[in-house]
Design goal:
Elements lengths: L1 H14 L10 H5 L6 H4 L3 H5 L4 H4 L3 H5 L1 H17 L4 H13 L7
Amino acid sequence: DGWGRGCREAAAAIRGADVLLLCTGAGFSADSGLAVYADVACVPAYALRRLKYHDICQPHWLQREPQLFWGFWGQCFNDYRETAPHDGYRLIDQWAERSFRNSETA
């Protein structure tokens, strides 16, 4: 059928590639328990100031309010560092190691 043929063709193209750029959405991290963009800034200190994620991500905070800048990005960094990845990350890592990290292009 068309679906199976399309999957076989995609698999062949990936097997023949020297490099693979794999992009995921926020849901991939959320499956590990990390907050998605809409929830990252949902803390009382930001809510009192009516700051949303897109507001806090602006680089001007580094100059205007370094405590806000470093507090926000430090928390994000710590969350990512302390959260155990789900099995999808392990599978992708194994696939990359087996098929792409040692290619001539890499």
